[in-house]
Design brief:
mainly alpha, Growth Hormone, Chain: A, 18 helices, 0% strand
């Protein structure tokens, strides 16, 4: 069966029961991951207003420390997934980031918050790798782009859940307590492990592959694989750097530059999130129609076209509101094809290591972007800082993707055709 033979609404029904159960397990993992990650960006204005954080630089440092630890955690989780299995690592990472999100709510000063968020990062970095590899190996080639990309749309659902909980806790509690309650709620995603343990199984591709000795994860840097590894890492830098430069500081930008308060802020973010949800799905579809490379290139270039006027120009209110949807759409759409693209670049025995390194090297370098945006925001303006770093990241991603081989339709070794 070819990709074109399965319509946009029927491809999910054409999947097997195992593929669908894995889809929902990974979808849930992305959603709860996003919820716990996005909580911090939402409470930055509150933390600074209540003097728990001194300035934008401290907030940027916490965001950067979280992303740096997530980069290391993601790479280690990828290597571990090649040894003990994708499902086990997925469960471990969900429990890990849930517990440390809860502990963030108990922090007594900014140093403790920094430590707890950094530790939380190990888990959320690893969850993406385990889930992406698991989906890529479970789903057949003709559905892989749409399935992996559609799972990524769970991130928008989790982001929306975080915004909703943020608005609710703000109304129910004083600011000094509301942010703590929000972090403590972040322990609930650990319950997802019950579903994963019961319903999600290791893919046959994983069982069929030869196990790799622990030291061999460095084989992704062998001369025959080095070019692909480095180019994938650059794609990861652009994807992660652009996304976190924008989303980490978007609530602060809306509050300070546009003067939005809780309900207006929540409503504006809702438009961005709806756009992101649609973008993930559209990017997944485009990756199967245009090919992995061109879907990423088109979406990243259009993200540049939207983010620069959105953050720099003094747009009238109605036009600014209209642009919220395409901002969310194009800043998320390239992720729709990223998981499948990386899955198809590496052999099974090195897939977790390779995909984990590429995505999380990008996250490690991109981790510096929130800090740099915070520093530049204190010197110039937050809008200019976001536009500069996000725009540069998107262009790096597009250039690197063009230099990688097209992999649409690739049948993985050991996969039934």
């Amino acid at each position: 069966m070819h990709t074109e033979a399965v319509g946009a609404r029927s491809w999910f029904r054409s999947m097997t029961g195992k593929e669908r159960r894995t889809f929902w397990g990974c979808f849930g993992g992305w959603a709860v991951d996003a919820m716990d990650v996005q909580i911090f960006s939402l409470v930055i204005p509150v933390l600074i207003a209540t003097r728990f954080l001194a300035d934008n630089t401290q907030a940027g440092l916490i965001a950067t420390a979280t992303l740096l630890s997530s980069a290391l955690g993601g790479w280690l989780a990828g290597a571990l997934a090649d040894r003990i299995g994708r499902v086990r690592v997925l469960m471990l990472t969900v429990i890990w980031f849930s517990v440390f999100t809860f502990l963030c709510g108990l922090a007594q000063d900014w140093t403790q918050l920094l430590i707890f968020r950094a530790l939380m990062g190990f888990g959320f970095g690893g969850e993406w790798v385990a889930g992406a590899v698991l989906m890529g190996e479970t789903v057949r080639a003709q559905f892989r782009g749409r399935a992996v990309g559609s799972v990524q749309s769970g991130w928008a659902i989790g982001w929306g859940m975080a915004v909703l909980l943020f608005v609710v806790t703000d109304q129910l509690f004083a600011p000094e307590l509301a942010w703590r309650v929000l972090f403590c709620i972040g322990v609930l995603p650990a319950l997802l492990v019950l579903y994963i343990r019961r319903h999600v199984q290791e893919p046959p591709v994983f069982h069929a592959a030869d196990r790799v000795a622990p030291a061999r994860f460095l084989a992704i840097f062998a001369p025959s694989r080095l070019r692909v590894t480095l180019l994938c890492a650059l794609v990861g830098v652009g994807a992660q750097g652009g996304y976190y430069a924008l989303t980490t500081w978007l609530p602060r930008f809306l509050a300070d530059t546009r003067g939005l308060r809780i309900f207006a802020l929540g409503g504006t973010l809702a438009l961005v999130i709806v756009g992101a949800f649609c973008g993930y799905l559209a990017g997944a579809w485009l990756s199967d129609r245009l090919g992995r490379r061109w879907a990423i290139v088109v979406c990243s270039v259009l993200a540049v076209v939207i983010v620069i006027p959105f953050t720099i120009a003094d747009l009238p209110g109605p036009l600014f509101t209209i642009l919220c949807f395409p901002l969310g759409f194009f800043s998320a759409a390239y992720f729709g094809g990223l998981g499948a693209f990386f899955t198809e670049q590496f052999p099974t025995e090195l897939r977790g290591s390779g995909q984990g390194f590429a995505y999380n090297f990008g996250r490690g370098v991109g981790a510096v972007f929130p800090l740099l945006v915070g520093v530049l925001a204190d010197a110039l303006s937050i809008g200019v800082a976001i536009a500069l770093f996000a725009g540069a990241a998107y262009l790096v991603m597009a250039a690197a993707a063009l230099m990688l081989p097209e992999t649409r339709g690739t049948v993985l070794a050991g996969e039934a055709t």
